[in-house]
Amino acid sequence: MRFFKHALYTTLLLASTGLMSLSAAANVVILQYHHVSETTPRVTSVTPEELRQHMRYLTENDFKVIPLTQAVDAFQNDNADSLPDKAVVITFDDGYQNVFDYAAPILKEFNLPYTVFVNPRLLANHDFYMGWDELRQLQQQGALIVNHSQSHQHLIRRLADENEQQWQQRVSDDIRSAQQAIDDALGQQPKYFAYPYGEYSPALETLLQEMGYVAFGQHSGPWGKYTPLTAIPRFPASGRYASLDTLKTKLLSLAMPVTEVKPEQSLLAPDQVKPELQVTLANSDDMRNSQLQCFAGAEVLAPTWLSATQFTVKPREALGIGRSRYNCTAPSESQAGRYYWYSKPFIRTDSKGNWPD
Ligand SMILES: [Zn+2]
Q1: How far apart are the C-alpha atoms of 62 and 251, rounded to whole Å?
Q2: How far is the CA of 95 from the centre of ligand 1 (A)?
Q3: What region holds the NodB homology domain (predicted)?
Q4: 217 C-alpha vs ligand 1 centroid, how far in Å?
Q5: pLDDT-derived band of residue 298, with 50, 70 and 90 as boundaries?
Q6: What spacing in Å lies between the alpha carbon of 130 and ligand 1's midpoint?
Q7: What is the pLDDT of residues 3-49, one digit of tens each?
Q8: How far is the CA of 317 from the centre of ligand 1 (A)?
Q9: Interstrand relation of 87-93 and 115-118 (parallel, antiparallel or unpaired)
Q10: What is the homologous superfamily of the domain 2-253 according to CATH?
Q11: Which residue ranges make up each domain of the chain?
């Protein structure tokens, strides 16, 4: 009885300080895969054996692999606290044939749900990509097949002589016709969109929101209640990110409660080569602010705290041409070994406004 009373008191105390709610979910880690093969480019590949290792690790360590729909519904309905602790979502981009050949049997063996983002116009290249028949089979096994645009263009890039309105028209036509092709082949599917190359801009986010989509990037970090539903992060799990040692930390990561970032834009102006990032948090009650660490590639960025809930970081070295990210982590006070994580993507263009794939 005495023990029970003590436990009850502790529970009430934790609940009253808000620490309870921190351990109670509202946190989803999405893993992003591309190829599952031993012969495709390493940077976007895991081997079948690596994928099996990942899935075994998840199931043997109390992670709860949930369907993407369950996560989206919870966050959309402001019900994210109902999600299980250590929730994980598995996604594959581009719909390669090797996902059908190697990934699907492994996911079936472990009985785990997953999502495939496809580019309908590219599926005609059938040796490389799955066809609709294969996708239909995956769907029948419980996979969700959703939108990755028609043909994997750099959607945030305007064409020469294209004005804002023409850009909007072209991009919304692309997304809408891709959705139509998916719905025609597989029945009406939820409006989920993965940005090609993970590239998004405030204008593209607004467009997708107006079209009723939730949208996913490929900047790292978990998904929490402050994450905009048009810029949901995913952890790449291929290539050098396939190592279980580093993946373990990411699987346990907690969404940093970021409410505002400056700049909002990820596309940098030509003279903006060392962008300062300012991050505002809803709170930092459970974060060890003094141990916040940020990185831009290999460079360690020393953060400057402006208040308990606001910091800035700025690199000393110029970012390279193309995509890069700032990653920031800070240990949790209440949960040993877990880190709050936030990532901000940037894109630096060359003098002609282009950048590599
Ligand atoms: Zn892709």
Answers
A1: 11
A2: 9
A3: 86-290
A4: 10
A5: confident
A6: 14
A7: 444 444 444 444 444 444 444 569 999 999 999 999 999 999 999 99
A8: 29
A9: parallel
A10: Glycoside hydrolase/deacetylase (3.20.20.370)
A11: 2-253, 260-348
